[in-house]
Amino acid sequence: MERESRRGIPDEIVECVITYVTDARDRAAVSLVCRRWYEVDALTRRHVTIAFCYTATPERLLTRFRNIEELKLKGKPRAAMFKLIPENWGGYVTPWIGIADSLPRLRSLHFRRMIVADADLAMLSNLKGRVLESLTLEKCSGYSTDGLLHVGRYCRNLRSLIMEDCSINELNGDWFHELAINNTVLETLNFYISDLEKINVKDLELIARTCPLVSLKVCDCEIPNLITIFQSATKLEEFGGGSFKEPVDPEFYPCITFPARLCSLCITYLGRDEMQLFFPVGHLLKKLDLVYALLDTEDHCTLIRKCPNLEVLEARNVLGDKGLDIVSQTCKKLKRLRIERGADEQGMEDIEGVITQRGLISLSLGCHDLEYFAFYASDITNEALESIGANMKNLSDFRLVLLDREEKITDLPLDKGVRALLMGCQNLKRFAFYLRSGGLTDLGLSYIGQYSQHVTWMLLGYVGQSDEGILAFSRGCPSLEKLEMRGCLFSERAIAQAAAQLKSLKYLWVQGYKPSPTGFDLSPMARPFWNIELIPARRESLDDGTGQITLFEYPAHILAYYSLVGRRTDFPGDNSVIPLALQEF
Question: From the CA atom positions of the chain, what is the Rg in Å?
């Protein structure tokens, strides 16, 4: 590349300016200006995120972005988190690990929903062990503590090790001992919800003494056993995962003190008796996760009243409308609120623990700075959605799931409400609207298309009445890149036609539709660089969570996505995933 522009601007200056452009979309736009800027972008790009691992190949990444320092890669479709995708569907990290040695500046790797083998971790440790500073395995599976042994032994400069919500085959705790004796720079350590029980507390204490820990999220370690760790980790700002499985003598409470900088807290199995331990630090907390706490509605209210500076709150719907009232009155700085579905089958429900229109209206009137709001509702009205649209102007991510526990919903369909919500929340980028039969008519679906001008990701469940609804929807949504639909029962041809009309669409997942006998009705969706895969309907016998084996039926799926490299080559051999070649159409 010439070092001097024809117009007299040296490449050094262009490189310096482009370096300050960090947003991925802006970077992509920069690279399209001219060949020279494309090459400068390739040389100066430091972070790359591949939102779906089959849209490119490791070789293509290596050819274009050889100087990257951080790589984030997502594998299985999001539906895999809900066990809707076959375990052997794909999403292997092996080919991506193979190019690590050819990326000389690579310091950070983040894999999400991917299959990682012990051999992958051994290879990574061998190729990058001396320089790797951050390794994140999020919702990954396929590896064991034998693979982690290589990470603990050879990756001695790791500042961040995250393995949250992973399926790990735990053979022993040797990996953790190696990590403890070899690493003195660790700032973030996270193996929360990964069922690692063979962790020696002495090794954890050694890490707390020798490493500048800022964030620590562990499994179900008893809080009384972590006292020394809290005393040693003086820089700790985030802690999660400790539990109170066994009752603690109240006389022991004064012995449990938390680091002065602590501002983020997540405690499992937290009960009413232990709750008072956290009252003294409540005013310091900016983030509170109560998803796995054993608290009823009134307990939630009591604890939240002590936390007026919360910016992030996560809980189950046992929080209830009463809890939302307290949040509205107390947490004026709240930016993110996630309310998960409670474990009703385990007897953890509360008679007050339901989210309805009353609580939603109350919340919208008090928390005007909310940017992210995801919740499960037992009842809802158009008025509640209208109130959210009128008062929560900063929302960029809104996700509603309407539960089927109530026989009758007060006010359906939600056509007027969704229109008011989308018209009022102009900053929405991500939108989920998962209802039940009769929740939204074709007109309401057309409103979603018409008023979702900036939405890039969308999940729709049980919406619309006919093919006309999805076709009207597809005439809008100019920015939509990823669309997921479940239980909408549109025909194959209508889905294909809608996908063809959504000009920005790069990814489509559908479960529950009206299939054609041959799949030929998907032909309107066929286009260059567009892969289509079918996952046939199947039955699986699974543990239902109570120890009983239950037969689950999974409807057929359609998965379609944009790819620069054609059809992938690692389909499972059991025909659980069937590729459709474009030439068939």
Answer: 25
